[in-house]
Design brief:
single chain; four-stranded antiparallel beta sheet
Length: 188
Protein backbone atom coordinates (compact mmCIF):
# COMPACT_ATOMS: atom_id res chain seq x y z
CA UNK A 1 0.00 0.00 0.00
CA UNK A 2 1.05 3.54 -0.70
CA UNK A 3 0.19 6.88 0.81
CA UNK A 4 0.17 9.88 -1.50
CA UNK A 5 0.10 13.49 -0.35
CA UNK A 6 -1.03 15.80 -3.15
CA UNK A 7 -0.54 19.56 -2.97
CA UNK A 8 -3.58 21.19 -4.56
CA UNK A 9 -3.99 24.72 -5.90
CA UNK A 10 -7.24 26.21 -7.19
CA UNK A 11 -7.65 27.22 -10.83
CA UNK A 12 -11.20 28.52 -10.33
CA UNK A 13 -13.40 29.53 -7.38
CA UNK A 14 -14.92 26.77 -5.24
CA UNK A 15 -18.60 26.92 -4.24
CA UNK A 16 -20.17 24.77 -1.56
CA UNK A 17 -23.75 23.54 -1.53
CA UNK A 18 -24.12 21.17 1.41
CA UNK A 19 -27.71 20.25 2.15
CA UNK A 20 -28.79 21.60 5.52
CA UNK A 21 -31.92 21.43 7.64
CA UNK A 22 -31.90 24.81 9.31
CA UNK A 23 -35.51 25.42 10.43
CA UNK A 24 -37.52 28.27 8.94
CA UNK A 25 -38.62 31.06 11.22
CA UNK A 26 -42.29 31.77 11.67
CA UNK A 27 -43.68 33.63 8.60
CA UNK A 28 -40.24 33.64 6.92
CA UNK A 29 -40.43 33.82 3.13
CA UNK A 30 -38.11 31.60 1.00
CA UNK A 31 -35.83 34.48 -0.05
CA UNK A 32 -35.32 35.64 3.55
CA UNK A 33 -34.60 32.04 4.57
CA UNK A 34 -31.97 31.78 1.81
CA UNK A 35 -30.32 35.05 2.86
CA UNK A 36 -30.24 33.99 6.52
CA UNK A 37 -29.00 30.41 6.09
CA UNK A 38 -26.60 30.46 3.11
CA UNK A 39 -23.54 29.85 5.34
CA UNK A 40 -25.09 26.56 6.44
CA UNK A 41 -24.25 25.25 2.95
CA UNK A 42 -20.61 25.14 4.09
CA UNK A 43 -18.90 21.94 5.14
CA UNK A 44 -16.69 22.92 8.08
CA UNK A 45 -14.53 21.09 10.61
CA UNK A 46 -14.87 21.31 14.38
CA UNK A 47 -12.61 24.40 14.44
CA UNK A 48 -14.89 26.23 12.00
CA UNK A 49 -12.63 26.01 8.94
CA UNK A 50 -14.21 25.20 5.59
CA UNK A 51 -13.37 21.72 4.29
CA UNK A 52 -13.72 20.03 0.95
CA UNK A 53 -15.23 16.62 1.79
CA UNK A 54 -13.07 13.53 1.29
CA UNK A 55 -16.01 11.94 -0.55
CA UNK A 56 -15.88 14.71 -3.18
CA UNK A 57 -12.30 13.77 -4.05
CA UNK A 58 -12.99 10.03 -3.94
CA UNK A 59 -15.92 10.44 -6.32
CA UNK A 60 -13.91 12.79 -8.53
CA UNK A 61 -11.06 10.28 -8.86
CA UNK A 62 -13.50 7.48 -9.72
CA UNK A 63 -15.27 9.72 -12.23
CA UNK A 64 -11.95 10.72 -13.85
CA UNK A 65 -11.10 7.02 -14.25
CA UNK A 66 -14.42 6.41 -16.01
CA UNK A 67 -13.96 9.46 -18.24
CA UNK A 68 -10.40 8.54 -19.24
CA UNK A 69 -11.16 4.82 -19.69
CA UNK A 70 -7.44 4.04 -19.84
CA UNK A 71 -6.85 0.41 -20.68
CA UNK A 72 -4.64 -1.71 -18.44
CA UNK A 73 -1.66 -3.02 -20.45
CA UNK A 74 -1.86 -6.75 -21.30
CA UNK A 75 -5.43 -7.06 -19.97
CA UNK A 76 -7.42 -6.74 -23.18
CA UNK A 77 -10.12 -4.07 -22.96
CA UNK A 78 -10.04 -3.86 -19.14
CA UNK A 79 -9.74 -0.31 -17.79
CA UNK A 80 -8.62 1.15 -14.46
CA UNK A 81 -12.14 2.31 -13.50
CA UNK A 82 -13.00 -0.48 -11.06
CA UNK A 83 -9.50 -0.31 -9.56
CA UNK A 84 -9.95 3.40 -8.73
CA UNK A 85 -13.43 2.67 -7.39
CA UNK A 86 -12.36 -0.09 -4.98
CA UNK A 87 -8.61 0.39 -4.55
CA UNK A 88 -8.34 4.07 -3.60
CA UNK A 89 -9.22 5.56 -0.22
CA UNK A 90 -9.45 9.25 0.66
CA UNK A 91 -9.46 9.15 4.47
CA UNK A 92 -9.86 12.83 5.39
CA UNK A 93 -11.41 16.09 4.28
CA UNK A 94 -9.16 18.85 2.93
CA UNK A 95 -9.26 21.81 5.32
CA UNK A 96 -9.00 25.25 3.75
CA UNK A 97 -7.53 28.29 5.51
CA UNK A 98 -10.84 30.17 5.66
CA UNK A 99 -13.40 30.07 8.42
CA UNK A 100 -17.09 29.49 7.83
CA UNK A 101 -17.94 32.80 9.49
CA UNK A 102 -15.53 34.69 7.16
CA UNK A 103 -16.53 33.19 3.82
CA UNK A 104 -18.14 35.41 1.20
CA UNK A 105 -21.13 34.47 -0.92
CA UNK A 106 -22.07 34.51 -4.56
CA UNK A 107 -25.61 35.09 -5.82
CA UNK A 108 -26.80 32.68 -8.52
CA UNK A 109 -30.03 32.73 -10.48
CA UNK A 110 -31.07 29.05 -10.17
CA UNK A 111 -33.93 26.89 -11.32
CA UNK A 112 -36.52 26.83 -8.54
CA UNK A 113 -37.08 23.08 -8.86
CA UNK A 114 -33.48 22.14 -9.72
CA UNK A 115 -34.41 21.04 -13.26
CA UNK A 116 -32.57 22.80 -16.09
CA UNK A 117 -34.84 24.69 -18.44
CA UNK A 118 -37.93 24.35 -16.28
CA UNK A 119 -38.59 28.07 -16.45
CA UNK A 120 -39.03 29.39 -12.91
CA UNK A 121 -35.88 30.99 -11.48
CA UNK A 122 -34.98 32.04 -7.95
CA UNK A 123 -31.98 33.77 -6.39
CA UNK A 124 -29.78 31.47 -4.33
CA UNK A 125 -26.58 32.20 -2.41
CA UNK A 126 -23.58 29.89 -2.19
CA UNK A 127 -20.41 30.14 -0.09
CA UNK A 128 -17.52 31.13 -2.38
CA UNK A 129 -13.82 30.49 -1.86
CA UNK A 130 -12.12 32.48 -4.61
CA UNK A 131 -8.66 30.94 -4.28
CA UNK A 132 -7.54 28.02 -2.16
CA UNK A 133 -4.71 25.58 -1.55
CA UNK A 134 -4.68 22.36 0.44
CA UNK A 135 -3.18 18.92 0.85
CA UNK A 136 -5.11 15.82 -0.15
CA UNK A 137 -4.14 12.51 1.41
CA UNK A 138 -4.84 9.33 -0.57
CA UNK A 139 -4.25 5.68 0.29
CA UNK A 140 -3.60 3.50 -2.75
CA UNK A 141 -4.42 -0.13 -1.97
CA UNK A 142 -4.53 -1.58 -5.50
CA UNK A 143 -1.11 -2.26 -7.00
CA UNK A 144 -2.63 -2.40 -10.49
CA UNK A 145 -2.61 1.41 -10.37
CA UNK A 146 0.97 2.52 -11.05
CA UNK A 147 2.49 5.85 -10.07
CA UNK A 148 2.25 7.40 -13.59
CA UNK A 149 -1.33 6.15 -14.00
CA UNK A 150 -2.41 7.53 -10.63
CA UNK A 151 -0.79 10.91 -11.21
CA UNK A 152 -2.38 11.24 -14.67
CA UNK A 153 -5.83 10.46 -13.23
CA UNK A 154 -5.35 12.88 -10.34
CA UNK A 155 -4.32 15.70 -12.68
CA UNK A 156 -7.30 15.05 -14.96
CA UNK A 157 -9.58 14.89 -11.89
CA UNK A 158 -8.72 18.51 -11.14
CA UNK A 159 -9.21 19.72 -14.69
CA UNK A 160 -12.11 17.62 -16.02
CA UNK A 161 -14.15 16.74 -12.94
CA UNK A 162 -13.41 19.29 -10.20
CA UNK A 163 -15.20 19.63 -6.86
CA UNK A 164 -18.15 21.57 -5.49
CA UNK A 165 -21.11 23.38 -6.98
CA UNK A 166 -20.97 24.15 -10.74
CA UNK A 167 -17.96 21.88 -11.34
CA UNK A 168 -16.77 20.88 -14.85
CA UNK A 169 -18.22 17.36 -14.55
CA UNK A 170 -21.68 18.96 -14.50
CA UNK A 171 -21.01 21.46 -17.29
CA UNK A 172 -19.71 24.28 -15.08
CA UNK A 173 -16.34 25.90 -14.74
CA UNK A 174 -15.88 26.22 -10.96
CA UNK A 175 -14.00 23.92 -8.60
CA UNK A 176 -11.09 23.24 -10.95
CA UNK A 177 -7.66 22.70 -9.40
CA UNK A 178 -4.15 21.58 -10.25
CA UNK A 179 -2.09 18.92 -8.55
CA UNK A 180 1.15 20.78 -7.88
CA UNK A 181 3.20 18.09 -6.14
CA UNK A 182 2.88 14.38 -5.32
CA UNK A 183 4.70 12.90 -2.32
CA UNK A 184 4.69 9.08 -2.23
CA UNK A 185 5.44 6.85 0.77
CA UNK A 186 5.01 3.19 1.67
CA UNK A 187 2.54 2.11 4.34
CA UNK A 188 3.61 -0.71 6.66
Amino acid sequence: MKRIEISLKSLAPYYQSRMHHEPKLEKEDPQSYEERTWREKCTANIDGYICIPAAAFKQALSRAAKMLSMQIPNRGKATYSKHFMAGVLVPADVALPIRKDEVQRIAVNCNADGVRGSGKRVLRFFPEVKAWEGTLGVVLMDETITKPVFEKHAKEMGLLVGVGQNRPENGGSSGRFSCEKFTWSDIG
